[in-house]
Amino acid sequence: MRAAPKISNLAQLGKAAADTVTFELARHLDVAIWVYDIDRARIIHANQSACDLWQAASEDQLRRRDMGHDMSSTVAKRLKQYQSDFIADDATFTELWTLYPNGVPKSVMVVFSGFPLSDGRMGMLCEVISESQDQPQNVRSAEALLHTDVMITLFERSGPPLYQNPAARNAAIDPGAGLSEQFVHPKQFKRLLKRLDERGEVRTVEQVHTADGARWHDLSAKLCSDAVTGQPAILVTAIDVSDLKEARDTARQLANRDQLTNLFNRSFLQAHLQTIARMSEPRQCALIFFDVDRFKQINDRYGHDAGDAVLRQIALRMRSLIRAEDLVARLGGDEFVVLLENATSAQEVERRVTKLCQSITQPVIHGATKIDLGISVGIALFTPHLADFDDVLRDADVALYVSKQSGRNRATVFTEEMGAAAKERYSIEIELKSAVKNDEFVLHYQPRLDITSGKIVAVEGLVRWQHPTRGLMMPDTFISICEESGVIEDLGRRVLELGVEQAIDWQTAGLDLNVSLNASPRQFENDDFLKSLKELSDRPNFPTGRIELEITENVLTGDLQAIAEKLRKINAMGYRIAVDDFGTGYSNLSYISQFPLTCLKIDRSFVDQLPSSGPIIRLILTLGQQIGATVVSEGVETEEQLEWLARNHCDQAQGFLITQPLPLDKLMAFLEPEKTV
């Protein structure tokens, strides 16, 4: 505790003369007195009483002791604080200290004052005024105050500190500064005083000035009285929580922000909607759901770095166009949301969406690459206090789905009619997830006719859903949902299993019949696709050369060498490979010959347009002959179409003229006895 300047005549005398001469006057005093060299952690002078206190046989022996050998860092800092104060303002201190002569603790009340050494450095004169008679717990309490990292200060109500423990003194820029001067923001100090007057004690986290710069301290302040003067005082304990606050701020940033674009994320958007829903003033808002068209193709064609650059650029464009009261967030992937507050009308929302889309869809330049963009948009208008976040987001998602189904690169406003359709679609999606496990899918088979011989030489296995309550469901009611939900891969695997099992049964029965099965683009691109095919081809009696996999022409775009390698591996396992709907995609015709294709299936749209589409069909027939692939015409429904195909040497025909897809029992009846057309 800092004391009044007048402590002892000896202390004042020590500051007036050279150290050796001055100390001679103290050698015969009964009180223990010594001079401590703070910089070198050595006692340089001691009277006999001090030698007795330190349990040293002589002054010379005491001088040789290294007092810093086992000194704690807290004590070392405290002594440096003393030295600084001695130099700055001629201070003296009276404190209860525990000394450890020869390792034995001894508590004494000591007066510390500055003592100029002969070489100009500042030492410390130590004078024991009494040995402590305090209870052990009081001594331990004093020691705890000395060594703790908790900063403890007793302030005058509106003045300087009356006491600072070492931690508080070490943190202070100015040891004489009052409590008000500690705060970075003066308003926070005024608020603290007001709350103290109201409650008597306050706990708060505030930014304060320290020797290490502005830091965040967890402060506990309490009104009390000074035990010496009885005057009003404030006891403040402080813990530095800067690192914790920074970690929490970072965690909050991570929790609320998307790391790629620094936009708000889904959780923040949800919390924000809940906040505005609690506002008393009703308002109409708009949630606008943006989705980048064919973003996967951007990643596949230009790489993920380019995809990330596109997303960051979209985020910048959105942020530059929204009002201060609006909010833009990234939900993940290529999905963005803009929340417009106070959307006065649907017309205003559509105007804002048009402006956003015009900006977003500007090409993105990544390095030397120009990337064109399309955007599909779903809009949900809602009143916050009447709506649920998940419901609003679902409505916007439904409108977005309609935009995509309508050709992409457009905006759609949600209607209740869309909601009913979406509910049905969602119900089907839920049921699909268990349908594969419950083995609810079956194959119907559509025969393929060899046009020259008139014999049925192959069948295409077409999936049907035998729903337990809805009855037999056709693919157009569930395949697109399977693709969007990811069920398509499990379904595709099951279709292959059913087709292979049936082909094995027919081969065992001596029936000469190939089986064609569809593989979706997503299934083909999956890394596990080859593994699944290998497991099937390793089955006993696998009908090598009789299973034909149908892929769409769009699968043959992208990394052509990688695609060719995958097709060669499939072919080597014993599978034939057909391209379905040929002529409607964008495959590289110059590369077709490098693919191990065994069949080209002419899309039914060309057959429907005969004879005007004749030149295109003849081109496909010629291509098939050049690469040694069988050519099949789909959608043959009339005798005239079949006759034209026969005259132009098409290999096979498939369509309602031959028969519609049939369940297994009806197919077997159709084949026995063998039918011809």
What features would you describe in this structure?
By secondary structure, the chain is α+β, with helices and mostly antiparallel strands. The chain folds into 4 domains: 9-146, PAS domain (Beta-Lactamase), CATH 3.30.450.20; 148-246, Beta-Lactamase (2-Layer Sandwich), CATH 3.30.450.20; 257-414, 2-Layer Sandwich (Alpha-Beta Plaits); 438-671, EAL domain (TIM Barrel, Alpha-Beta Barrel), CATH 3.20.20.450. 40% of the residues lie in helices and 25% in strands. The chain contains 24 helices and 26 strands. The strands form 5 sheets. Strands 18-19-21-22-23-24-25-26 form an 8-stranded mixed barrel, surrounded by 4 helices. A 5-stranded antiparallel sheet has the order 2-1-5-4-3. A 5-stranded antiparallel sheet has the order 7-6-10-9-8, sandwiched between helices. It is elongated and about 135 Å long.
Give keywords.
disordered N terminus, alpha+beta, 24 helices, 677 residues, five-stranded antiparallel beta sheet, Beta-Lactamase, Alpha-Beta Plaits, 40% helix, elongated
What spatial order of strands do you see in the largest sheet?
Answer: 18-19-21-22-23-24-25-26
Total separate domains = 4
The gross shape turns out to be elongated
The CATH superfamily of the largest domain is identified as EAL domain
Q: How is the quaternary structure best described?
A: single chain
Q: Specify the number of helices.
A: 24
Mean pLDDT: 83
CA-atom Rg in angstroms: 44 Å
CATH class of the largest domain: Alpha Beta
Task: Indicate the structural class.
Answer: alpha+beta
